[in-house]
Design brief:
The strands form nine sheets. The protein has a five-stranded mixed beta sheet, with no helix packed on it. It contains two helices and 37 strands. It is globular, with a radius of gyration of 24 Å. With about 500 residues, the chain is mainly beta.
């Protein structure tokens, strides 16, 4: 036996005799039954309030420690959605999903391992959309640069094609952009719809043949209906030259808001013409869940009296979405609040947006005040109801965070500023168990939702654009423009099994 042969035999014997190597896998034991974060800002109202979170609280949030930092194969310019299995408490069994700017969908385990990624369909430009989980939790939906929404199997990433999938949401993907997050809503009759909102690209100069529209896709049969913000009498996905009007994209982060109380969806539109008949620029629109309207007219509408000034000075109403509010003592939301680029908070009555009992009127808001911290609004507000049934709303921008509370003043609903903070800004804020999370370039922090006092902060994130944190199952996840995903959790929940 040669020397080389003897060395190989000895090495083989050592490997056989040695115990099997098992990597130390990072897992977390959940403080309560695991739950999902199925779409942008948690629920179909996009409230930004995780009412199911029981792990993180104002008492322990200061103990959050770094769980992992991991690189995505591409940048995701939006928050993740999160799926929790029903049968396991091990975090690596749970999954995060990201839509990347190049139109791919990436699945990551909740301990930071990339599990699979799709090959992006060929297409121009980029997207800032976020995915959404199917109510069955068997599929996940994502927008790609080919102008279609695609359906993928949740465990493998295999695309489901045929029977209507993938669904076209724009015929002009070089000038029309899937900006907002995908939304899913299930109506009282049990029909589930996937909503995709479409706007234009900001470069160069908001130009191009785009009109702004929303597509509703029935998940049981993949049939779709379109509402066009401009040329609203045409109920199909418009092609080049189908409408002479321009702009009015739907690009705010939440996209489409569903209100189960009135079984309606709400969108907010951007700069573009308004004529109260077929063009609905700079307006809040109320639509049926299937988007089928008569003669192009929404169920109701709100348009500021100064809509022409907003259009002229590029002060889009549509830079954000509508948030739903409950008055003190009420079980369901009857009010809506919105703030756009002009920095004006507008409170509206959901049952009569303009106060005239019909769409096509201007003015009629119940209240208008400036953002307490100043500046304009580009992020989605969050709404939280505390344990005393007080309704809070939070707006974040480059000037900081403004917290307001809904109260009755002489029988009329009013939003009253409670506190402002400059410790965090830019991202869409989210609330979990009385803790408000928000981020800006290079910093994420947690504030007491009642007082604004800072409870925790970390500076290990990169620059952000439309990214925002999610807080779910005792952990916080945040992506940034470097393609890095950073996660934090409470130390007592982190275990390292052998």
């Amino acid at each position: 036996m040669t020397f080389r042969t003897r060395c190989f035999a000895l090495l083989l014997a050592l490997l056989v005799a040695a115990p099997t190597f098992r990597p130390r896998v990072r897992t977390i034991d959940f403080p309560a039954a695991p739950h999902d974060w199925p779409q942008f800002n948690f629920d179909q109202q996009h409230s930004g309030s995780n009412s199911e979170e029981e792990g993180i609280s104002s008492d322990n949030v200061a103990k959050l420690k770094l769980l992992f930092q991991a690189k995505l194969p591409a940048v995701s310019d939006g928050p993740a959605v999160y799926w929790a299995t029903d049968s396991s408490t091990r975090r690596q069994k749970h999954m995060l999903f990201f839509t990347t700017t190049n139109g791919a969908l990436i699945a990551m385990s909740a301990d930071g391992r990339v599990l699979w990624q799709t090959k992006p369909p060929a297409g121009p430009r980029w997207t800032t959309s976020s995915p959404a989980l199917d109510p069955s939790r068997n599929y996940v939906y994502s927008y790609a640069l080919d102008g279609r929404v695609h359906k993928y199997k949740i465990f493998t990433g295999q695309e489901v094609s045929g029977d209507g999938w993938p669904v076209v949401i724009t015929r002009k993907p070089d000038v029309e952009k899937g900006s907002s997050a995908l939304s899913i809503a299930t109506t009282a009759s049990g029909i589930s719809y996937l909503y995709a909102a479409v706007a234009g690209y900001p470069d160069p100069g908001d130009e191009g043949d785009y009109q702004g529209h929303v597509v509703a896709i029935r998940l049981d049969n993949a049939t779709s209906t379109t509402f066009n913000v401009l040329c609203s009498t045409r109920n199909w996905v418009l092609g080049y030259g189908d409408c002479a009007s321009r702009q009015a994209g739907v690009w705010g982060r939440p996209g489409v808001i569903y209100n189960p109380t009135d079984n309606s969806v709400y969108i907010v539109t951007s700069n573009g013409p308004y004529d109260s008949g077929r063009d609905w620029g700079d307006s809040i629109l109320k639509l049926p869940p299937d988007l089928r309207v008569r003669r192009g007219r929404p169920l109701d509408s709100y348009t500021p009296e100064e809509f022409d000034i907003l259009d002229k000075h590029d002060l889009d109403l549509g830079s954000s979405g509508l948030a739903l509010l409950r008055r003190p003592g009420e079980a369901e939301p009857t009010l809506g609040v919105h703030a756009g680029k002009d920095g004006v908070i507008r409170l509206v009555n959901l049952a009569d947006l303009s106060g005239h009992g019909a769409p096509g009127w201007v003015g009629g808001e119940l209240q208008r005040i400036r953002l307490p911290q100043g500046g304009g609004n580009f992020s989605a507000p969050s709404v939280w109801t505390d344990d005393e049934s007080h309704t809070w709303v939070y707006f974040a921008n480059g000037h900081g965070i403004g917290a307001l509370q809904l109260v009755d003043v002489d029988g009329a609903p009013q939003l009253v500023p409670q506190w402002t903070s400059t410790s965090a800004s830019n991202s869409s804020p989210v609330v979990a168990n009385g803790v408000l999370f928000c981020a800006k370039n290079g910093r994420i922090c947690a504030l007491d939702a009642r007082t604004g006092d800072e409870l925790w902060a970390d500076t290990r994130i990169g620059d952000i654009h439309w990214q925002s944190p999610i807080v779910v199952n005792g952990a916080v996840y945040m992506s940034d423009l470097s393609g890095t995903v950073t996660a934090w959790a409470l130390p007592k929940e982190i275990v390292f099994p052998r």
